[in-house]
Input
Amino acid sequence: MDRIHTSIRLRQIMEERGIKQADLVRMCAPFAREAGISMGKSAISQYVTGKSLPAQRQLTILGQALNVSEAWLMGFDVPRDRAPAKAEAVPEPFPLTAHEKRLVTAYRDNPTMQPAVNRLLGIPDESADQPRNDPAADIIETLRELEKEGAVRK
Output
């Protein structure tokens, strides 16, 4: 049976998801820590370039980090999706503090305020082409004008 090389699969999924090698190192870090092994920039670079093949433990970590099956990463013609393990807890790639979690929850629970928060944070509005009745935007615009006049500080 012909197989695609692991490096090709890694580059394929990284390109599809816009992931850089440094991102992949960060994504693998919690899984590698949990497994008690090291997977640094050099190892990831060698796997991506095809200079070396990941051992089974490293392959498992790559699969967990990318949420793909190890067999798919190895180049076999199998489904890409990772079969959920019963006891496998997926650590957050960027752990949030309790306060940050409350902020995210509040953001999600208040969709009418999301455009205003996005503007405050400088996040482009994905639906900028659609007209919107947004009272919060008026408040923010007023605050910005007052800030320019020196009446309000950031």
